Amino acid sequence: MKLVTFENCTGQSRIGAVTAGRRIIDLNSAYALYLRDVRDEGAFARLADAVVPPNMLALFEGGDTSLEAARTAFGHAQNEGDHVTGVHGEPVSYPPADVRLKVPIVPKKFFHTAGNFREHHEEATKAGFSHPVMPWIVFFQNVDAIIGHEEPVIYPKHLTEELDYELELAVVLKKGGKHFTPEEARKHVGGYVIFNDITARDIQRREMKSGVFSFCKGIDTFCPLGPWIVTADEIPDPHNLAMELRVNGESRQRSHSGKMSVKIPEILSHYSPMGYSAGDVVSTGTVSGVAAFSGDPKAWYLKPGDVMECEIEKIGVLRNRVISWEEAYGHKPEALATQESLK
């Protein structure tokens, strides 16, 4: 399934799954309908809220039980047709024009992997923009910076003049846990999602003098995630996926998930002593082709008006436009710290 969080025509936030025809099935409403009409369950609404809640984090906290129930609901709604209504007369199936996709999930923790694709680390070294990676780095992403498909990345010109992109494959966990082996990691994987790791390179360059970087990647709107979560059963081998990032239609990053130096089971196991919660997100690192390490970084750095398209095979396309601070807020950021004051 392709799992989405969406806003319906009445402004409610709901969770759904995408059909082959790109319609959105409201999974909570569909499961209540299934319980009433197929299972003859009297407490259909209450049970649906408990097993397939209208919140993505809560759905993943339900683990395999909730994901299987969601799959059952999805199949039932498709069998009933596009015009099926729910137990309260509400729509169950929506055409894409009638909904707005939101960020699919806001996790409790976002584990960030850097340096895992050696091609990216090697190009950083050649550009004199790196420090030792053995064999990868982990840090936490700011979950409040997460945005969804078609939501804008706000360019804080008063903070950075070197805004960059990084295409990544990320893992969504369906099961929490601690201290598990790579062999045990598979049972924790719930699905996969596209992540664009927006980075302020000039801030990163200063942070890296201390060997740590975080602020450069955690600024508001710097964490596009989406457009949906593809469940693990639809991607049996996450290390066999073509990856490409385009800016205004021009290919900038093009690679393959098979080029990871450390594979997903090892990554998940290595971080597990910190403890996972269901719904946590783990990124796996970016590929070569970022602006900072190109032949002409100034020409490739992002600017207002640019449109980024992140595509990963079997998942889809995550699209975000860059807008200026003034377009986002209607005024200049006079009251905020200037870049010079942060040096």
Would you write up a description of this structure?
With 343 residues, this protein is α+β, with helices and mostly antiparallel strands. It has 2 domains: 2-101, no CATH class; 105-342, Fumarylacetoacetase-like, C-terminal domain (Fumarylacetoacetate hydrolase, domain 2), CATH 3.90.850.10. 24% of the residues lie in helices and 28% in strands. Strands 1, 2, 3, 4, 5, 6, 7, 8, 11, 12, 14 and 17 form a 12-stranded mixed beta sheet that branches. A 5-stranded mixed beta sheet has the order 9-19-18-15-16. A two-stranded antiparallel ribbon has the order 10-13. It starts with a strand and ends in a 14-residue tail after the last helix.
Keywords:
11 helices; alpha+beta; five-stranded mixed beta sheet; globular; Fumarylacetoacetate hydrolase, domain 2; 19 strands; 343 residues
